[in-house]
Structures are given as C-alpha cells and as structure tokens.
Design brief:
The chain is mostly beta strands. Helix content is about 5%, strand content about 40%. Strands 1, 2, 5, 8, 10 and 11 form a six-stranded antiparallel β-sheet that branches. Strands 3, 4, 6, 7 and 9 form a five-stranded antiparallel β-sheet that branches. The chain has one helix and eleven strands; from the N terminus they run αβββββββββββ.
C-alpha cells in the first residue's frame, strides 16, 4: 500500500487548512486522553507501549524532563535507516497497516487531529497521515506535514488540522511517517489526538 498521502492538506504548525475557520482549536491547552480516539496518545501506559511494537529506528523514551506530556514520548533517530521512509502505525501494533486499530467514522463528520513534534537537528520532514477506507475497501490518503524549517530545533510544536470524512468512508487508520529526506538528527512525538467536532465545538472533556 502507498504510505505517502496521494492527496492532502499540508500545513505548518498551529495553522489549519480546513475552511471551517469558526472552529475554536485548543492551541496549547493541556493534553488529555478524555474522548481521544487515539488510545494512550501520550504513550504513558505500559500496556499500550508493550502492545505497540516499535519499527526500526523508533523507540519509546522517558528521558527526564524530555516529554511534552507526562514522562514518555516516541523518538525516531534519523541516522538509523538513514534516507529510508519509516512508518509508525498509531492505533494498532505499530508495525503493520491492517484493519486492526482502525477508527470507525461517519461520512461528513469533522475531526480534529493534532500531535506535538520536536525536531532535534533533523534535516527533513515528518507527516501525520490518515488512511480512509471506503465501503468497497479502496483507500485514499491525506496528511499533515511538518518540516525541519517549520519547527525550531529543540522546541515542541503543536501541529493540528481539521479533516472532513469523505463519502462512503467507514474507517480511518492514522500513522506517522518519517520521510526519506531525513538523514541526521532526531524527531520526537507526543500528545497525539483525534477528536470529533460537532458544529464549531471540539469535543474535549465529555461535556457533549
């Protein structure tokens, strides 16, 4: 299957490409897993870390004070497999693009996607991808890309977007791609989120 999105929205940190500008985004609010459709989006639960095998060049890390939220984050070292595209599948076993871990969705529904990213001397880009599975089992893709020029080295940045589920879509799979233009440095990932949007309201705390 094609891992890079065939079409898609591309944005720099904290900017949304969707036309629904009336949606108020959290922009830096404290991360919570309440109503987060990504299970354990900040990698804090040992059971989820154990269940998600990390592909080559990725590792779970709990260096003191390094995580954006909690104590754990996902690290990618670019010098391992240098110049090779590397993929981490978010909601399943980490290493395979399967039906396991797909999130059930409804056409026309809007979702907020976000992740915290830190660039440590990288020379490339990373993408948070969405694979849409239609009711005939065909696939389309979209992605939110952050480059080393978007994100100052050493700083955590919030990358976020709004997606609208296409017609005939039954489920989505999320995955992180460290693109093949990376040959040095590291990328760190934390606080992954997917939340439903109703009207102009982002569902964060179970109030709706």
């Amino acid at each position: 299957l094609k891992s890079n999105p065939s079409t898609g929205l591309v944005l720099t940190p904290t900017k949304v490409t969707d036309t629904d500008s009336g949606i108020t985004l959290p922009s830096g609010s404290a991360f919570s897993d309440v109503n987060n459709l990504i299970k354990d989006g900040s990698f804090e639960a040992a059971s989820f870390r154990t269940a998600r095998t990390v592909p080559a060049s990725f590792a779970y890390n709990n260096a003191a004070g390094a995580a954006k939220h909690g104590t754990w984050f996902l690290k990618h070292t670019n010098t391992t497999g240098s110049g090779t595209e590397r993929i981490y599948y978010v909601n399943n076993g980490g290493v395979s693009e399967t039906l396991t871990g797909e999130i059930i969705v409804s056409p026309g529904t809007k979702y907020y996607l976000a992740f915290q990213v830190r660039n440590l001397g990288s020379n490339g880009s990373v993408t948070l991808n969405v694979r849409f599975r239609a009711n005939d089992n065909s696939y389309t893709y979209t992605g939110t890309t952050a480059t080393n020029t978007d994100i100052a080295s050493g700083d955590w940045e919030l990358v976020q977007s709004i997606i609208t589920i296409p017609d005939n879509t039954v489920s989505v799979m999320l995955y992180i791609t460290v693109n093949s233009n990376n040959t040095v440095g590291e990328w760190h990932f934390d606080s992954l989120e997917m939340r439903e949007v109703i009207g102009t309201t982002l569902i964060e705390d179970g109030a709706i």
